Amino acid sequence: MGDHFDQGQHALLNEGQENEMEIFGYRTQACRKTLCLAGSIFSLGLLPLVFYWRPAWHVWANCVPCSLQEADVVLLRTTDEFHTYIRKKVMWISLSTLNSAFGLTPDHPLITDEECIISRAIRKPDLKVRCIHVQKIRYVWNNLEGQFQKIGSLEDWLSSAKIHLKFGSGLTRREQEIRRLICGPNTIDVEITPIWKLLIKEQSVKLHRLVESHNSITVSVCGRKAGVQELESRFLVPGDLLILTGNRLQMPCDAILIDGSCVVNEGMLTGESIPVTKTPLPKTESAAPWKTQYEADYKRHVLFCGTEVIQAKGGCSGTAKALVLQTGFNTAKGDLVRSILYPKPMNFKLYRDAIRFLLCLVGTATVGMIYTLCVYVLSGEAPEEVVKKALDVITIAVPPALPAALTTGIIYAQRRLKKKGIFCISPQRINICGQLNLLCFDKTGTLTRDGLDLWGVVPCNKNGFQEVHSFASGKALPWSPLCAAMASCHSLILLDGTIQGDPLDLKMFEATTWEMAVSLEDFHIRGVPAQAVVVKPGKLASQVPVEGIAILHQFPFSSALQRMTVIVQEMGGDRMVFMKGAPERVASFCQLQTVPTSFASELQTYTTQGFRVIALAYKKLAMNHHTTALMRDKVESDLIFLGLLILENRLKEETKPVLEELISARIRTVMVTGDNLQTAITVARKSGMVSENQKVILIEANEVTGSSSASLSWKLVEKKKHIAYGHQDNYINIREETSDDDREGSYHFALSGKSFQVINQHFSSLLPKILINGTIFARMSPGQKSTLVEEFQKLDYFVGMCGDGANDCGALKMAHVGISLSEQEASVASPFTSKTPNIECVPHLIKEGRAALVTSFCMFKYMALYSMIQYVGVLLLYWETNSLSNYQFLFQDLAITTLIGVTMNLNGAYPKLVPFRPAGRLISPPLLLSVIFNILLSLTMHIVGFVLVQRQPWYSMETRSVCTVQNESIWKSTISPTIPEKNSTNGSFTSFENTTIWFLGTINCIIVALIFSKGKPFRQPTYTNYIFVLVLVIQLSVCLFILFADIPDLYRRLDLLCTPLLWRISIVIMLSSNFIVSLVVEEAIIENRALWMIIKKCFGYQSKSQYQIWQRALASDPSWPPLNQTSYSDMPEDGKGVSYSNPVFESNEERL
Prior knowledge:
It is a single chain. The protein is an alpha+beta fold. The longest helix is centred in the last third of the chain and has 39 residues, at 841-879. The chain is globular and about 120 Å long. Helices cover 38% and strands 20% of the residues. Keywords: ATP-binding, Magnesium, Membrane, Metal-binding, Nucleotide-binding, Translocase, Transmembrane, Transmembrane helix. It is a multi-pass membrane protein.
């Protein structure tokens, strides 16, 4: 079909989203449908099968194009490089049943409210809704806008004030029923595929069990008139008001918290089972959509489906309330399940090349069919015999087991990975692991240990920073606002008598030796609600003038904001605000005069030593404000800087050896962290990611401010040999003077998430140049991590991402290979999950990926040769109107090829990573040369054997055997000496040509298997695959035994003829010559990497990968990198005009 469409026939579904699709309208035509039905009957069901695999053909055959408004069938096409088609029928939902039950009329306010998508979808006056179901999501036709829109969610354009006003009291029963009918049930159903469908679909039993419990939860719902009632979660609709009691509850939907506060375990989403505090959505008088009204992440107000509410506290109304935001597959858990059910196809060149080669084999089979028809028709054979022989050629030339053989290496690799504690939910990505050449690592919890040790605290006053208080000394921290901040500025909770929460918060609180309690109903202090967290001095704490501190309100930590704030009440004292977070962020909210002038140098002192630094600040708050009514921006202003909290984050023992192994294998390593930039640089040096003799260049970018344009500066970071503690004068980090030698050798770029974003927006033409040597990316938000991975992919890198699951989910999903070090449920979002929480799994995965990839190539070559050997042998016999018998085919297929196919892939991965990767595609010169050469060699050997046997002095068309005298009586009694007789069992002639061709072909299959079974440098040597070697020895022994044994019964069963001993020796000599020549060519030419490098150099071949093109360009650029320079964007839109884009990004996996 063409790309020209009538008005209204074509539109975009989910525009700008990951699952964006084109949608086309079609109308079924009766005459076309009748013809297709007749075709289905006459083709004996073949046509429906073709239509099943080609839904676009089904639509084009049965329908004619029309506008989407009139369509009864729609055709969807993905906008990625795969252009996958999906056919869907347009369904109708009738509201007539509600008309009789509730008196619903077209002019009812619920129907005429055009702010709601549901109302816009209802067609008047017949009260019907058109909808389609695509990948578990329901889309309804918006009559006002003339397009299909997703249903099952609250409208994104609603403001927070409108949400409180419209849904704060719940829905009426009539509204619930309308929404229930149009939005569908709140269920995440994964059907178990029936056995009869297993041929064409994959079974989903495990996934069904994973989501089964989601659909059977009882919740409390508040109705506008009905009050609170118990309801099964499957009946929930967007807009319902949930009442959250104090009991634990697994969220059955996504919901916005509008009153009270909740502590939630989001392990299913983040990979960390650390309690997260959720705050209510404020009633802001703003018309902006609720998701964009605040600087902080809107997700801090959202309770996600699948997460567990472990504590709920009431607000103004006395109970915690949440508004249902999304239901079913629209939820966070539903989206996770959909990503498993409908994974993004992997466009790995290996599989596309395999299909192309199969088509070549089909072409070869077609030639063989024509040859067969000519030979057998001219020889006067019966028509049914001609057809049978012609069809045999197809099954011989096109091995049906080829696709299965290509995946056996993956299956064995998956088993080996499982034994090492690495689990995989997307086996096809194992081959892609073999192509990885860039790996991104999160820092905290991945390269460094999870636990943070509190090293000390640096207080400050008007005179600057004071002496460090070391917690190793055992002395209690003296009472001060700093001590109060450490005791109360956290999100810890008391659960079943145990303090739980973020490890950093826990270490900080434990250092104060204070204790935690919960205020009870009889706890009467002005402004302190019941069930509030109260911290009190412990027995070991220093003397404190207050009885304790009650935490009234929290503004939780957000990785985007890099801070958290609490409002507290001192018992018998003042109301206070405490903030903790990234030092640079906290200092920006403080009064300038309270931040010491040596702040930057002091911070640098500790970050250069690899410490993690947290800043603390506070201010007093007037008592006449209600805490929940205070806006965050009002609270977080004019603070007083308190000091720095110094935490030690040590490298894991496995980190440095693994990174050294990867770097020695020429695999790029990149750090992507949310931590401080200088800390990241220090960890990169300590871990070996940046070696001692390599330079680090700091890139700082500033956004457009007023009339000034965006700026970009480049400074060389000097590694200090020693930092004397307490001497700020030793702080020299940026070296101003540079020599020409600094531009030579290896260097690494380091930049923050803010600079990365500015470069992406205003200096995008420089971005690929920076990424070529960009190694350290700090203060990166989750979204920026995903963007970075995508930008690396645009440069044709095969990118792996390794993280502990927290804030890394987007990048793990975006990368070619995502490796989660978390065992939580979130690991299902990542293709690979390691049971061992360190990066040792990464080289194991790459080794197994390389081994699996090479194994796939070995099996491809073997299956191709095996089919061609049979093909050549059969066509030669067809020349004499002869063929192989059924038992001969069976022996070759089962006893030889099947056993080889099962055991050839058992080689494990080679224990050492070499500094180059295996070929990433089948159609590569060495591999094609290997296949073509061996096909020609086998063809030559078969032709020589076929011709020579006919020229032997003992050869006669009438002679059926030349065995020894003792066997004479046997063959004379079974075969006529004068008239060639067809074997009654299989209809083929026994002949000397048949015997010769069968022995040559069968033993050649064994030889080819030995030659093609590769060992080093990607797989363990062949001799270590004991089962495979044993199988080859037994097969070869059996074949030689049959060749040299004179056993008439055996020969009769296999339809063979006895030949003179000298001819049998000649067969062995031909096979030995074939083996020697093939082995020499394979080892001396095909596998000679140095030779191919010389050939590439002679022909001037250079890699077309984008990153290598940039590397060559930068290596010849004397002005790069531009040290100690500052560049500016001419205009705020400058970057857009020269924006770097890679038009081949969609097919980046095809580049090797």
